[in-house]
């Protein structure tokens, strides 16, 4: 069973996390630590460990892989354990490859974002335009800042961004149904060069391709 089939909103919340990572900061928040970090962030690569918790706080699934992100609007999530899945945004399209199902789903990125403007994902809009930024609080050895979406029709309740010193260490998302997903980052490299081919996806031969195919 893939992460997407177990947790149907996976592409949606991944887009929201990517949104936060690729946003800038408005003048009012530009000199505060979290918005400043994302304003100065041009690219990111890291290994990640993802834990999905049910509404009772019990782990429902643990998976791991590697992520690459680059402004404007490009990212790649490679899930390697327990099953292989690749999610790529090339700036205009979102590709989801499920190796077990031998299937690729492709959508236009602006349609996949739903009510979230593509301009936000591109990094052109400030973080405080989309979120209310709370005060930092310490928990589990990290300094956590809560980001609450300003849009009423949001599919998640809040995001928490955890820092260890000046290093991005973790991100948590709470959905509207009480579920929680935590991503812990290791070997994170900030603003390192990333080959453009990393964000180019070509469906493997023999797989089914469905969705917005031209």
TrEMBL record:
What GO cellular component is one of the record's annotations? outer membrane-bounded periplasmic space
Compartments, as annotated in UniProt: Periplasm
Pfam families the UniProt entry points to: LolA
Q: Does the keyword Chloroplast apply?
A: no
Superkingdom is: Bacteria
Keywords attached to this Swiss-Prot or TrEMBL record, sorted alphabetically, are:
Chaperone, Lipoprotein, Periplasm, Protein transport, Signal, Transport
Q: Which SUPFAM superfamilies match?
A: Prokaryotic lipoproteins and lipoprotein localization factors
One Gene Ontology biological process: lipoprotein localization to outer membrane
Assembly and partners?
A: Monomer.
What family is reported?
Belongs to the LolA family.
The protein's job, in short, is: Participates in the translocation of lipoproteins from the inner membrane to the outer membrane. Only forms a complex with a lipoprotein if the residue after the N-terminal Cys is not an aspartate (The Asp acts as a targeting signal to indicate that the lipoprotein should stay in the inner membrane).
Q: What is this protein's record name?
A: Outer-membrane lipoprotein carrier protein
Give the encoding gene's name: lolA
């Amino acid at each position: 069973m893939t992460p997407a089939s177990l947790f149907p909103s996976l592409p949606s919340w991944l887009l929201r996390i990517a949104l936060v990572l690729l946003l800038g900061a408005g003048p009012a928040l530009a000199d505060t630590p979290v918005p400043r970090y994302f304003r100065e962030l041009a690219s990111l690569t890291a290994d990640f460990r993802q834990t999905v918790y049910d509404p009772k706080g019990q782990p429902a699934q643990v998976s791991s892989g590697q992520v690459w992100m680059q402004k404007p609007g490009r990212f790649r999530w490679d899930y390697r354990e327990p099953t292989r899945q690749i999610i790529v945004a090339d700036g205009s399209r979102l590709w989801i490859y499920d190796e077990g199902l031998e299937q690729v789903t492709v959508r236009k990125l602006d349609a996949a974002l739903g009510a979230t403007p593509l301009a936000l994902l591109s990094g052109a809009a400030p973080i405080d335009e989309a979120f209310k930024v709370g005060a930092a609080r310490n928990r589990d050895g990290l300094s956590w800042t809560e980001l609450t979406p300003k849009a009423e029709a949001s599919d998640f309740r809040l995001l928490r961004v955890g820092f260890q010193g000046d290093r991005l260490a973790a991100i948590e998302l709470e959905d509207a149904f009480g579920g929680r997903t935590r991503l812990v980052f290791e070997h994170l490299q900030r603003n390192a060069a990333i080959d453009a081919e990393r964000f180019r996806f070509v469906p493997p031969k023999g797989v089914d391709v469905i969705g917005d195919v031209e």
